[in-house]
């Protein structure tokens, strides 16, 4: 109730959340390679999602924080394809509640700068309600938001997040699943189309040299085209302010 009251109070002071075509771009899979540090040179308010316990996770987090960049924890979760290596700090379906929350807690403790969490892989685990409940219980206690990477159309993550009162959003576009100029441009245009239609859109990309070079060229044009590049948390706030507005209108109508 206190949070809803606060949201209603700030509605009038945050007009940019109610108007305008806003885009958030999250670069995830950060931490395994030194070249990932180069992504910090991207212009604008890019958000970054860091894999836990990786060689460059700590230095990236420090440099990003100094540059006032928004950070997420990119937590590995079990995939349907069991041949894929999840990496350190992974959450799997054979874990007990204590094991899962201990593993997630360690990952969060290693990156205290993060404002939110999104799943790395996770096409299997995000379909399971019980592990998602244990995950959201942790995020609620730490007041962190959840970005569903939507690696499966059967994900239960956002449904469970709603049950636990965890603020959440879902990815709209993967920019670089197919890594060539034509497909990058196609997905970037799709991102702008969704932002134009819905007034906001969220993309996930990866620290491939081809992706970074493409974004270096494309990002400066967004403002000229009428789009605002914002940190992901701003779109999370926007979503819940709009929900509060809708609820307030419903109360007034009654």
UniProtKB/TrEMBL annotation:
Coiled coil region boundaries: none
Organism for this UniProt entry: Pseudoalteromonas neustonica
InterPro entries: Divergent_DAC, Glyco_hydro/deAcase_b/a-brl
Assigned keywords, A-Z: Signal
UniProt KW Signal keyword: yes
Annotated signal sequence range: 1-18
Protein name, UniProt field: Divergent polysaccharide deacetylase family protein
The keyword Isomerase is annotated on this UniProt entry: no
């Amino acid at each position: 109730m206190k949070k809803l009251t606060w949201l209603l109070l700030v509605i009038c002071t945050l007009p940019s959340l109610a108007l305008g075509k806003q885009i958030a771009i999250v670069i995830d899979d950060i931490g395994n390679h030194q070249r990932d540090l180069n992504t910090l040179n991207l212009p604008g308010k890019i958000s970054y999602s860091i894999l836990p316990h990786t060689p460059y996770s700590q230095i990236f987090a420090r440099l990003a924080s100094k540059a006032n960049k928004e950070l997420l924890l990119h937590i590995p979760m079990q995939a349907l394809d069991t041949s894929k290596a999840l990496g350190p700090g992974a959450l799997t379906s054979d874990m007990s509640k204590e094991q899962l929350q201990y593993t997630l807690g360690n990952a969060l403790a290693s990156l205290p700068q993060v404002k939110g969490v999104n799943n790395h892989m996770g096409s299997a685990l995000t379909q399971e309600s019980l592990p998602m409940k244990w995950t959201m219980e942790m995020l609620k206690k730490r007041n962190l938001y959840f970005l569903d990477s939507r690696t499966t159309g059967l994900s239960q993550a956002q449904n469970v997040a709603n049950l636990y009162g965890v603020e959440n959003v879902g990815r709209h576009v993967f920019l670089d699943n197919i890594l060539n100029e034509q497909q990058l441009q196609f997905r970037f245009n799709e991102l702008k189309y969704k932002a134009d239609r819905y007034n906001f859109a969220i993309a996930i990309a990866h620290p491939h040299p081809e992706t970074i070079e493409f974004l270096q060229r494309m990002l400066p044009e967004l403002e000229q085209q009428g789009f605002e590049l914002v940190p992901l948390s701003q779109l999370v706030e926007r979503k819940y302010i709009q929900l509060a507005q809708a609820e307030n209108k419903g109360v007034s109508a009654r």
